[in-house]
Design the sequence.
């Protein structure tokens, strides 16, 4: 039956969601551990490593168990006879099983957060002062794609509207709007321009939601590592650009698929169950793309930053070896390059008022090899007091409305800003209007 494909995708959300939650501690920047600010050297600490490993194993085992339960819950739906109420209950149970790993992983994060804070006090990890880095040439650093790309939703709306006008004569007097899990239509809407406009309303809401998410990326605070401002800014910019491209592509694909599938089912070319299967299939690239970007880039581009640091350290080592064996000419060239890097980061430091390393690559080398025991306890900043429960940011002194999440992939709001609550209220109102329109149409 066509309904089994959406059910399979629903079951698949359990391991995908749980797997991402299990990997989250390893996707975060090196200066963060379970939503606690720590020095980069903390990730080599045996206790920290044990906490991350135990968390990952616990969430992974729990996810595997709930995935099996979700798969077993679909067995009754494959039978020919079952009630609508029983089917709805099973669907609700499967959806709940997908949310349980998220809730349990959050509880485990809070417990580990308390333990990391205790280790932080025990080790004496602290920030003597709050350091920051500002980029002088910020316009040259990549970032999210332009918001103007969201205008592409307009051609999608026009195309779906044109399909509706072209297929309108083929539609029956009563348009099917809902089916049970056996594939039987159990709700109709009289044929009218109003009922045919249903997918246009959905596309408008989807487009507005995705555009708002895109806007939040463009307005977010840019996190930078004061020890390597240019490299960290570049890594974050590439991360934000990749996320914005994925968001735009998935939004357009989902909107187009939803509109075409509904119009095709209304005209009788496909059934509603087949339309639902097609729409679920269009969600696969969004889920797969999100997981791939999370693994490749990490939160804020942390994994990309790590690879860039390693490449910079390797390049610096090769340059040093070449300078030692190549004579004075090579030394002069190397010195010129270092001088250029020093002037660049000096400009960055002057914008923030704090001293910065001469260049990103040498800073990475010295941090990795020559740090003293005292330096290993120091942090450039510590904003733990502003993070409530590790995920809610509340800082009235920060003008930023959006900023990267502390535990997870994505962005969150500064809830100390009145604009944050205005945004929440506005989006809630938009959702209520959308739901009311859907009920009015169907």
Sequence:
């Amino acid at each position: 039956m066509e309904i089994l494909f959406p059910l399979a995708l629903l079951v698949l959300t359990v391991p995908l969601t749980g797997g991402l939650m299990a990997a989250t501690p390893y996707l975060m920047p090196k200066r963060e551990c379970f939503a606690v600010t720590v020095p980069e050297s903390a990730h080599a600490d045996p206790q920290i490593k044990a906490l991350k490993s135990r968390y990952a194993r616990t969430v992974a085992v729990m996810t595997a168990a709930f995935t099996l339960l979700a798969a077993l819950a679909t067995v009754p739906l494959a039978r020919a006879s079952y009630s609508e109420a029983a089917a709805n209950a099973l669907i609700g149970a499967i959806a709940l099983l997908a949310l349980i790993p998220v809730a349990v992983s959050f509880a485990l994060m809070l417990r580990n957060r308390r333990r990391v804070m205790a280790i932080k006090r025990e080790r004496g990890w602290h920030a003597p002062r709050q350091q920051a880095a500002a980029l002088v040439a910020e316009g040259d650093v990549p970032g999210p794609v332009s918001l103007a790309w969201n205008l592409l939703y307009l051609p999608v709306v026009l195309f779906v509207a044109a399909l509706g006008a072209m297929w309108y004569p083929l539609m029956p007097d009563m348009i099917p709007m809902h089916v049970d899990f056996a594939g039987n239509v159990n709700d109709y809407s009289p044929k009218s321009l109003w009922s045919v406009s249903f997918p246009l309303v959905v596309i408008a809401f989807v487009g507005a939601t995705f555009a708002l998410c895109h806007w939040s990326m463009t307005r977010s605070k840019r996190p930078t590592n004061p020890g390597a401002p240019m490299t960290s800014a570049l890594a974050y910019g590439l991360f934000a650009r990749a996320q914005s491209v994925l968001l735009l592509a998935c939004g357009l694909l989902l909107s187009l698929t939803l509109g075409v599938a509904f119009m095709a089912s209304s005209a009788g070319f496909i059934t509603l169950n087949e339309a639902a299967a097609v729409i679920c299939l269009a969600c696969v690239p969004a889920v797969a793309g999100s997981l791939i970007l999370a693994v490749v880039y990490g939160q804020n581009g942390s994994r990309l930053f790590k690879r860039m640091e390693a490449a910079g350290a390797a390049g610096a080592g090769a340059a040093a070896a070449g300078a030692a064996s190549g004579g004075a000419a090579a030394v002069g060239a190397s010195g010129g390059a270092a001088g250029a890097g020093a002037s660049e980061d000096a400009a960055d430091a002057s914008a923030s008022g704090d001293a910065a390393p001469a260049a990103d690559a040498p800073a990475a080398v010295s941090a990795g090899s020559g740090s003293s025991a005292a330096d290993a306890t120091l942090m450039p900043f510590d904003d733990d007091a502003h993070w409530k429960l590790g995920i809610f940011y509340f800082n009235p002194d920060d003008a930023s409305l959006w900023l990267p999440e502390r535990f997870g992939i994505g962005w969150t709001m500064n809830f100390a800003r009145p604009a944050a609550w205005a945004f929440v209220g506005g989006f809630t109102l938009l959702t209520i209007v959308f739901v009311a329109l859907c009920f009015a149409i169907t």
